[in-house]
Amino acid sequence: MSLGEVDDAEFQAWANRVKGKIQSDSIKKELGDSAKRIGAQALRQFKANTPVDTGNLRRSWNAEGPFYSGGWSIKLENNAEYASYVENGHRTRGGNSWVAGQFFMKKSAQQIEAQLPDLITPGLWAFRDLLE
User: pLDDT tens string for the chain (132 positions)?
Assistant: First the structure.
């Protein structure tokens, strides 16, 4: 007993479109361009949110990448030895009181995350729409 035939022509056409996008170098280029844009904006955001006393902490920001190793990544670092103390807080020298953290890195990361849809190449959003 047969339940009928299934016409999968529409599915096959969609699968071919997705396969073509994945195999083309355009997706890799768009991903790399988006990663660069995200890294540049992240560096600007981190510098803008970094508190300034002498200016050393703000000048100490560096960005590297983007890198691809199973996924795209960007390395942001601040090589000022005291950056983590300003971020998270610390005891005073005498140990009698606490200086509250400023959480400028946490705030910056949240702001960048909110901006991601605007920073990602429109072509990648079109690709994502293919998958939905």
Answer: 556 676 788 888 877 877 776 666 677 778 888 899 999 999 999 999 999 999 999 999 999 989 888 778 999 999 999 999 999 999 998 889 999 999 999 999 999 999 988 888 766 655 555 555
Beta-sheet strands, E only, within the chain: 61-68, 72-78, 89-91, 98-100
φ, ψ for residue 8, nearest 5 deg: -105, 20
* CA 16/CA 29 separation, integer angstroms: 20
This prediction's pTM = 0.72
Cis peptide before 117 (omega within 30 of 0): no
| Domain boundaries of the chain, sorted by first residue | 23-131
